[in-house]
Design brief:
Layout (H helix, E strand, L loop, with lengths): L1 H85 L5 H69 L5 H10 L5 H11 L6 H22 L4 H6 L15 H15 L3 H8 L5 H4 L1 H18 L3
Helix pairs in contact: 1-2, 2-3, 4-10, 5-7, 5-10, 7-8
Length: 301
């Protein structure tokens, strides 16, 4: 009977591992697709930016030429106005000259107005370019943050499943700010510590919890037969209710927190058990490594 349960347990673990591996492959594909799309968007935006920069350079040159012509026309207009004021309009000949100057003056004024409109149009284009550049910078920041968050999520998934994540860590190192390189180095140091994955942590807690419960029951049970068969009995917290209901509820809660990957909370709850450090050594050590790793990784966000 015991052999059958062991086979069922091994089969369930194998099935879980295969499902998890399939999920990792699918997620890896999605992350790869996401990075390909980001590269495509980046190239398109870069092309647009180069086009706008070329236009703004051309417009700047045009503004310079128009401004120079504008100044020359204004100077010429001032000279004509001065000439008109100094000339007398006493005879028909001088009146005719003055009329011609007036027509010329109106033509120049019209040209000046057209130049002014062109300058205003170019200024509007410059403002639009600046707005586009601001939007482009904002989008670039959003893509940069998303890349960091995606890499961090993938690293956490791989770390929790005891898979190598050096490639993702190297990619992350290339895009973070220089002042955060220290956290990359800390992560590499923590990586050398033997964290064996989240499923291993769950299994270790289960084993240590059973030993803890058996020890507490044995202290309150003098039955010789029980002591002989106890090593072969699987004990759950529900069977511990007879001894100390508070501890039983606490163990159930800790198991739930570990399954939900709320490791910080689980450790705090674990410390409420009497003599916890003597029975949950592996759980505590693995949890400390996990907490330290996540703390430094999340500093990169």
């Amino acid at each position: 009977m015991k052999k059958i349960f062991e086979n069922i347990y091994l089969f369930s673990k194998l099935t879980t591992s295969l499902v998890l591996f399939a999920v990792l492959i699918i997620m890896g594909y999605f992350f790869y697709t996401s990075y390909q799309n980001q590269d495509k968007v980046y190239l398109e935006k870069k092309s647009q930016e180069n086009k706008f920069e070329e236009e703004i350079n051309n417009n700047s040159a045009q503004i310079k030429i128009i401004s120079e012509n504008f100044v020359k026309n204004q100077l010429f207009l001032s000279q004509i106005e001065e000439l008109i004021e100094n000339n007398s309009l006493q005879n028909d000949s001088s009146y005719k000259i003055n009329e011609e100057l007036t027509i010329t003056l109106e033509g120049i004024q019209k040209n000046i107005n057209n130049l002014f409109k062109e300058i205003q149009s170019i200024k509007i284009k410059i403002v639009q370019f600046e707005d586009y550049k601001t939007i482009k910078d904002d989008n670039k920041n959003i893509l940069h943050e998303k890349s960091i968050n995606d890499l961090i999520s993938l690293i956490i998934i791989k770390y929790e499943n005891n898979l190598d994540f050096e490639h993702e860590l190297n990619s992350l190192e290339k895009i973070i700010l220089p002042n955060k390189d220290i956290f990359i180095e800390k992560i590499r140091v923590i990586k050398r510590k033997p964290y064996k994955g989240h499923y291993f942590l769950e299994d270790q807690f289960q084993l240590e919890m059973e030993n803890y419960i058996k020890n507490k029951i044995e202290k309150n049970n003098s039955n010789f037969l029980y002591k002989i068969i106890s090593p072969y009995i699987k004990i759950e917290p529900s069977q511990y209710n007879k001894i100390k209901s508070n501890d039983s509820l606490l163990l159930i809660n800790i198991k739930k927190l570990i399954k939900e990957k709320k490791i910080n909370e689980s450790i705090e709850k674990l410390k409420l058990l009497d003599g916890y450090e003597n029975f949950f050594f592996n759980t505590i050590e693995q949890s400390k490594i996990y907490i330290e790793f996540n703390k430094n990784l999340l500093e990169l966000i």
